[in-house]
Amino acid sequence: xxxxxxxxxxxxxxxxxxxxxxxxxxxxxxxxxxxxxxxxxxxxxxxxxxxxxxxxxxxxxxxxxxxxxxxxxxx
Length: 75
Description:
With 75 residues, the chain is mainly alpha-helical. It has a single domain, classed as lambda repressor-like DNA-binding domains (434 Repressor (Amino-terminal Domain), Orthogonal Bundle). Helix content is 56%, strand content 0%. The protein is built from 5 helices and no strands. The longest helix has 11 residues, at 3-13. The mean pLDDT is 93.
């Protein structure tokens, strides 16, 4: 899954507006909208803030896994 779709879905599932997430990231609503729409890239510092805010793993937010807590080692 594309990370833009994932961060939009997480935001919508938790009933947050783009304006609220923009506040978390210290951006304007338009600046955050550009990330979700693909007109701007998600910076690593913003990814870290989103992970902490949502309490989700970065692997999940960027679409590397469907496990919200990240990869789990298997033996």
